[in-house]
Amino acid sequence: MTTVDGARATGAALRFPPGFRWGTATAAYQIEGAAALDGRTPSIWDTFSRIPGKVLGGDTGDTAADHYHRMAEDVGLMKRLGMSDYRFSVAWPRVQPTGRGPAAQRGLDFYRRLVDALLEAGIRPVATLYHWDLPQELEDAGGWPHRDTAERFAEYAGRVAGALGDRVASWTTLNEPWCAAFLGYASGVHAPGRTEPGASLRAAHHLNLAHGLGVRALRAALPRSAEVSLTLNAHAVRPLTDSAADLDAARRIDAVGNRIFLDPVFHGRLPPDLVRDTAALTDWSFVRDGDLAVTAEPIDWLGLNYYSPTVVAAAGPGTPPGDPAPSPWPGAEGRVRFLPAPGPRTAMDWPVDPGGLYELLTRLRDELPGVPLLITENGAAYGDYADPEGAVHDPERIAYLRGHLAAVHRAISDGADVRGYFVWSLLDNFEWAYGYSKRFGIVHVDFATQRRTPKDSARWYAEVIARGGLAP
Ligand code: IFM
Asked: Model-level pTM?
């Protein structure tokens, strides 16, 4: 009996259940480019990335990985790697340029071509409707803190489902609403860059509402067999010690990091402790009668994006003055300290800790019985480069993926209903505020030539898929 990154290995291969879904994930603004083509209008990220100092190196998604023009090549790559699924996002400003009204045919056509190419290649399309690229016009009208944005999202969801529902059977409303609400409207490190903690809580509620209204719009437009889901970057929160103060710090972060979405979506309620913790910022009167029935529309699976755990302790007297930057954790400012978890780090300086994924999966196994889970993102950035022979060796990424897959396997063995695993990401891409400085792809992209080179990890992942699991 040996230990592989925290998971028990028995010397035998770790096989995943039959039908396990193996894929990769991307997002429109991070790879498509063609930002002003075929009627696409600016999103909040087009605007934000043009503000000096917001994105490293002044990078934008104008060209990104030029996937808009290289889609066929990229689908070919996935086919060769043996993927069963591909999770992509639809750019709202491409298909509904003003954020309201009729859909733009040319924008929809791109996604029709993509989906047709995937189906032709035997790859199941998994469409995410919102991966952070809000049409700028909707931000100008108030953005996510404004209730109408949720209604606009439902309209958009219905239109995309009406156009692609005959071809796409697997749908996700939102990607990581925590980031959209709190990085976008509280810390301001993501678009639209607002630093208004009270408004960020409104944004979180309206994202939940958009999800629920979106589920209704999707169900109305799609065949009964279609799957509808939500993806969260649920946090694996660990208290530093068992002291009451550290446990309370972890509770606070769990409330505003996880239960702010899990409770409305799966239980139709707001966490009472969250309401108390944030009382100085808002009275929550923007939550109207009936909203929490909408947010709790049943879904078919929950997507989880996991990268690393969050270690917290109470910020007691004697705590050195914290980071003066605005916090993405409303209600926790000045009360919680974030600590670096031990162990190796990725190029994002994120700790490599597959145990956090196991903790998350087994927690959700217990708290959400009957809700299937899918890992919709997991992966790591490293300082990859093509060597003189043109190869890209990325042993750290292979170790990262292997450790996390072993953790998923262990969780499944312990009863978690995990249906699939999608690596973030297929391609090196625009990593938001880090621009092109961080490479998450299993396929290297030379951004000067747009040449794609599968890294060693892509070949390794193809073998995992072919084998249906990890080698001994
Ligand atoms: O690149 C992002 C992605 O858009 C959302 N989840 C986390 C990834 C890595 O930061």
From this structure: 0.97
